[in-house]
Specification:
Shape: elongated
Order of helices and strands: HHHEEEEHHHHHHHHEEEEHHHH
Number of helices: 15
Radius of gyration: 26 Å
Length: 399
Amino acid sequence: MFPPMNKHSIKAALLQVHSIIGLALALVLTLIGMTGATMSFEDEIGASLNAGIMRVEARSTPMLTPHGLIARLQAAHDLGKVSAVTMASDPSTAVRIRFARNEGGSRPSSVYVDPYDARVLGSPRGEYFFATVRKLHRWLLLPGDANGYGRQITGVVAIGLIVMLISGIVLRWPRRAGSMKMWLKPNLALRGRGFHWSLHSVVGTWVLVIYLVMALTGLWYSFDWYKNGATWLLSRPSVVAAPMQPKMQPKSPRGTGTGAAEAAPLALDRAWSAFLHEQGSRFATAQLTLPAAGTVVRIRSWARDASHDGARDEFRIDAVTGRVVSSEIYADKSVGERILASVLDIHRGSIFGWPGQLLFMVAAALMPLFMVTGFMLYLSRRKHRRMSRPTVGSLVPGE
């Protein structure tokens, strides 16, 4: 029979787990935290850097349709295959066009064009920088991107962070649990190990809920089993039953096989007209994503009063027939489905507006603090144990 574990032995075991995981994941967690903080206000920074090419002078002439824009752009420039077009109902907003990866695997920079004559206004500054930071944050710049090992590694790191958060709150549980001062105020008068412990534990309490939200939502992008489980838990049964139906490519009337559908040019204007018939003037911005194969175009639209990026409607429209294959209206979603649609906004705090973004950015930027203080605590424990056998009274409470 194993001897019963007392309170001190349980905390000692938790401390070992907390320390080992922290030492193993510290550098990666710091990297993920700093890159996440860097991307927190990416949209706002991009808008500031590219204010000169994102706006045009509104004119009385009608704006070009998606097909007209692409045709004129490709006739004047050899920029590559268009993959997405972002248009706005505002007549003074430029159109952004993104391109597919070329044969070498690289993606050309997107461009802003005049919606009235398809004149190229310029490529957005900062796009390549943030794309690299995003790859570093999500996949650690490892080969394969979303299909490589980096995706699984960041998922394992997120699980490790959850374990550290749970073990950390148990380790620092004070004797006077009802004392807010004990929980939230670091003791800056301490020195050495005591100061490091106070800073590590108190600041950790401040950001614990934010880190937990970040980790739980980050797992969505790392593991399909987690994403499928969350979808099953939060979606209505009718939505879970056929999640892939919108992506099925209908046969083209010009042929009976996939090759015939791919050979037929996409009638983007037909899909755009079907979208306008569904949305009318309710949309502020719409993004058309062209299919890599088949004829179904995905169109995401954001209303003028959309509170965050996840509050969007999504349509899949056959660009040959103009038939709406599927539609997902944000207002019709259940609470759980709205959560699923807003995972990224929850992950970065933007669902709470700019104050939430700022709070999540600061929390992410504090990750190096835990790496440094945790490492200092580990070294001080090793030094203390070499000097003498530790007693309960000689260690900082919780160690």
